[in-house]
UniProtKB/TrEMBL annotation, chain B:
<feature type="binding site">
    <location>
        <position position="366"/>
    </location>
    <ligand>
        <name>FAD</name>
    </ligand>
</feature>
<dbReference type="InterPro" id="IPR050816">
    <property type="entry name" value="Flavin-dep_Halogenase_NPB"/>
</dbReference>
<keyword id="KW-0547">Nucleotide-binding</keyword>
<dbReference type="InterPro" id="IPR006905">
    <property type="entry name" value="Flavin_halogenase"/>
</dbReference>
<dbReference type="Pfam" id="PF04820">
    <property type="entry name" value="Trp_halogenase"/>
</dbReference>
<keyword id="KW-0285">Flavoprotein</keyword>
<dbReference type="GO" id="GO:0000166">
    <property type="term" value="F:nucleotide binding"/>
</dbReference>
<dbReference type="InterPro" id="IPR033856">
    <property type="entry name" value="Trp_halogen"/>
</dbReference>
<feature type="binding site">
    <location>
        <position position="92"/>
    </location>
    <ligand>
        <name>7-chloro-L-tryptophan</name>
    </ligand>
</feature>
<dbReference type="GO" id="GO:0004497">
    <property type="term" value="F:monooxygenase activity"/>
</dbReference>
<dbReference type="InterPro" id="IPR036188">
    <property type="entry name" value="FAD/NAD-bd_sf"/>
</dbReference>
<keyword id="KW-0274">FAD</keyword>
<feature type="active site">
    <location>
        <position position="92"/>
    </location>
</feature>
<feature type="binding site">
    <location>
        <position position="353"/>
    </location>
    <ligand>
        <name>FAD</name>
    </ligand>
</feature>
<feature type="binding site">
    <location>
        <begin position="23"/>
        <end position="26"/>
    </location>
    <ligand>
        <name>FAD</name>
    </ligand>
</feature>
<protein>
    <submittedName>
        <fullName>Tryptophan halogenase, putative</fullName>
    </submittedName>
</protein>
<feature type="binding site">
    <location>
        <position position="198"/>
    </location>
    <ligand>
        <name>FAD</name>
    </ligand>
</feature>
Length: 238, 530
């Protein structure tokens, strides 16, 4: 259930938002959307995979946190053990809203049904004079960045399709305790097809700013081994 | 063989048996700290015994600590949540002084525990003065006053024990604190707790205390005795006749009237001690989650007991409307500011009120207990032969510290422009210690600097003197002919502002923190499975 509200000084002056990270606050997720503009920051923490958006032909990029639904192997004692979190999850419980008319500036909305809301020990959004706190200023910056990155991402996924640069990933992970996890439905960058692109195609991808995120996504797959190690730490003796 | 060896070392004067006489805050802090730091692998592990008289009530008024208490509690091995809940404690981030300059309404300054931001004090004071935005010195150079004004805690619950976003000590219920330390000391640290009344002292040939005679257990022998008998000063005073150095010439307050006022559930818990000046002294106000401790400190030469009661009543009426003063039971305390000429004599060390007492304006009582024990334990004498040199050093260091504290307390008064006879008398030049007079002359043309307080472990560093000097309206000196070195003070002040905003957003209120802590520890309600 959600209850989105436009954030205002009047209505939310005393509101505090919890910023710790745990399952009860909705952080126990296997994946989160990650924008191509973020690949560079995300690629040394998480595997970046691609998946078709349900009911459409469009692809979206996801950062992988676990091997089954509801599993986030980065959560540890109220904190998220990584130096970077994808914007889409980091901004929660805030969202970008637009006036019903569709015109005008984006607004900061807040999901008042989020478990992050309504705790006396969270971070304030406005100070005692009604001025936005540094926390809210940062959230607003992140929302702006996320909005822009989302709008820019369509061209990236179109280029992937145009050059057929994705291939299905089949990953079977055998854990130290002998159990097997299968990762299905994901795609990764097709390294061979990427290598085979001619100079003209590469030049076009580069000119549009798509080449770097492609290589970042490729490089991110090195994190699969580290993620499996995290999973093993949890299952062995745990 | 082992028993023989240890018997032999006793003949050599090895220090193995520590006997603490007195069981208040001082006695139990001494017992716990010594026992906690004793090495169980030592050839002859220390035995710590504490004799507590069932007849003598403890004073239990020292209810403000310094940040040093966090280190002390950690050494003793108490979890911070256990301490907070066990003593109805809250966080103390400094002191706010109301009405000290002229007595006009709304006049206040902070002496926070966080020192001014790191820049040359000359530049910092100049930048604060140049900003001319009407902000008090402490508010400009330190993010803590802002957090205090919002009744915020200095830490979040998720932080490790004793860590803080801002430096802090505690407000606590002294009676509960002694009880908690006693239980912890006896059950976890192996302190022998003897409930008995000391009726006499047995002296050795060299003048040392050989044993204390108790009513029920006879003589209790020891190698090192800690006198924590409070104002009685059973060993250092009655036993060794060490003279008392009267400091009431500089600090004339000699009475206090203390009450405990109830607080409403959910009401804000203050982040600092509030010290409000009145016609002939000042009032303390210490907020706990469960009650407020309020007291009127005054000089009997300038104010009668009835007038003090009136001042207390008026204060409660203005700060806690609805409090029925006549249903509270004030306690009257009589004291004299001063200390022993020496604190460690022979094999006896005085800790706590037996060593001395100064009016509680800067909560120096408990911190002096901690510092005394730190000094003892950082260079603990393994034998009697090693005691005299250490005692001489200890006495020199603590005489210096008491002197410095007297001077710092006096600083609060001499800068006042209040006009009542008490305040004018406080400013009489012959009541101001000479070293303080010299410093005040220096501070005409430059701020308090480290060189003014040169020891490594100053009780009140230059930062504290800056807070009081400029809080009391001391003028910022003009630029001198020599430039200061270091980073830009203007940038440093902007950084303080940023940090203050971030902290004000991220820290919970004291009330929210302490209530959540209490709720978390409460037994599961309604039979909910955990």
């Amino acid at each position: 259930m959600t209850a989105h509200a436009i954030l205002t000084t009047e209505a939310h002056r005393e509101l505090r938002v919890r910023t710790d990270r745990n399952a009860a606050l909705g952080d126990a997720v296997m994946t989160a959307l990650v924008m191509p503009d973020e690949f560079r920051r995300a690629q040394n923490e998480y595997p970046i995979l691609f998946r078709r958006t349900p009911g459409s032909d469009e692809f979206a990029a996801l950062a992988l946190f676990g091997f089954e639904p509801g599993e986030n192997l980065f959560l540890e004692n109220g904190r998220w053990d990584a130096r970077y979190r994808p914007l889409a999850i980091d901004v929660q419980p805030f969202l970008i809203g637009r006036p019903a008319s569709g015109a005008g500036d984006a607004q900061v909305h807040v999901d008042m049904a989020s478990p992050r809301i309504g705790c006396d020990e969270g971070v304030r959004l406005f100070d005692e004079t009604g001025r936005p706190t540094p926390f809210l200023e940062r959230v607003a910056e992140q929302l702006g960045e996320l909005d822009e990155a989302y709008r820019a991402s369509g061209a990236f996924f179109a280029a992937l399709r145009r050059h057929q640069l994705l291939e299905p990933l089949t990953l079977e992970v055998t854990l130290a305790d002998g159990s097997t996890n299968r990762l299905v439905g994901f795609h990764v960058v097709d390294e061979e097809r990427l290598r085979a692109l001619d100079a003209a195609a590469l030049g076009e991808l580069h000119a549009q700013g798509h080449l770097m995120p492609l290589f970042m996504a490729l490089a991110s797959l090195a994190n699969l081994a580290a993620l499996i190690a995290r999973k093993n730490r949890g299952t062995v003796g745990g | 063989m082992l028993a023989e060896a240890s018997e032999e070392s006793r003949v050599d004067g090895a220090v193995g048996r520590v006997v603490i006489v007195g069981g208040g805050t001082a006695g139990w802090l001494a017992a716990c700290l010594i026992a906690a730091r004793a090495d169980p692998a030592a050839a002859r592990p220390l035995e710590v015994a504490l004799i507590e008289s069932p007849d003598v009530p403890t004073i239990g008024v020292g209810e403000g600590t310094w940040p040093t208490m966090r280190r002390t509690l950690e050494r003793i091995g108490l979890a911070e949540a256990d301490f907070l809940l066990g003593c109805d404690a809250s966080f103390k981030q400094g002191t706010r002084f109301d009405g000290w300059r002229t007595g006009r309404a709304g006049e206040a300054y902070h002496h926070p525990f966080v020192p001014p931001t790191d820049a040359d004090p000359r530049d910092l004071v100049a930048a604060w003065n140049a900003a001319a935005d009407g902000r008090p010195f402490a508010d400009a150079v330190c993010p803590q006053p802002r957090a205090c004004r919002l009744d915020l805690a200095p830490r979040q619950r998720a932080m490790p024990d004793y860590a803080g976003a801002l430096n802090y000590g505690y407000h606590l219920d002294a009676g509960k604190f002694a009880t908690l330390l006693a239980a912890h000391g006896a059950s976890r640290l192996g302190v022998r707790h003897l409930r008995d009344h000391v009726v006499g002292v047995e002296r050795a040939a060299n003048g040392d205390v050989a044993a204390v005679r108790t009513r029920d257990r006879g003589a209790i022998a020891g190698d090192l005795f800690i006198d924590c008998t409070g104002h009685t000063a059973l060993l250092i005073g009655a036993g060794f006749n060490v003279p008392f150095v009267d400091r009431s010439d500089a600090l004339p307050n000699d009475r206090a009237l203390a009450v405990q006022a109830p607080v409403a559930p959910g009401s804000p818990v203050a982040s600092q001690t509030v010290a409000t000046a009145h016609a002939a002294g000042w009032l303390w106000d210490i907020g706990l989650p469960t009650r407020r401790g309020v007291g009127c400190v005054y000089a009997s030469a300038f104010m009668s007991d009835d007038q003090a009661a009136d001042a207390l009543r008026a204060y409660l009426r203005s700060t806690a409307p609805g409090t029925d003063f006549d249903r509270l039971t004030p306690r009257r305390l009589t004291f004299r500011s001063g200390h022993r000429e020496r604190f460690w004599v022979g094999n006896c060390l005085a800790v706590g009120l037996s060593a001395g007492f100064l009016e509680p304006l800067e909560a120096s009582a408990i911190v002096l207990i901690e510092l005394s024990l730190d000094a003892l334990l950082d260079d603990f004498p393994p034998t009697r032969a090693g005691m005299d040199v250490r005692a001489a050093r200890f006495n020199e260091l603590f005489r210096y510290r008491w002197d410095r504290i007297v001077e710092f307390l006096k600083l609060h008064y001499v800068l006042s422009a209040r006009d009542e006879p008490y305040w004018r008398a406080h400013r009489a030049p012959d009541t101001v210690p000479a070293r303080l007079r010299d410093l005040l002359a220096l501070w005409q043309d430059r701020p308090p600097l480290r060189a003014d307080l040169p020891r490594t472990d100053e009780v009140f560093p230059a930062a504290s003197h800056q807070y009081v000097l400029y809080g009391m309206g001391g003028a910022a000196p003009g630029a001198g002919p020599v430039r200061a070195e270091g980073r830009g003070a203007v940038a440093a002040l902007a950084e303080v502002e940023r940090r203050g905003r971030a902290l004000a957003a991220g820290l919970p209120t004291n009330r929210a923190y302490l209530d959540a802590l209490r709720a978390e520890r409460a037994p599961a309600a309604l039979g909910l499975a955990r």
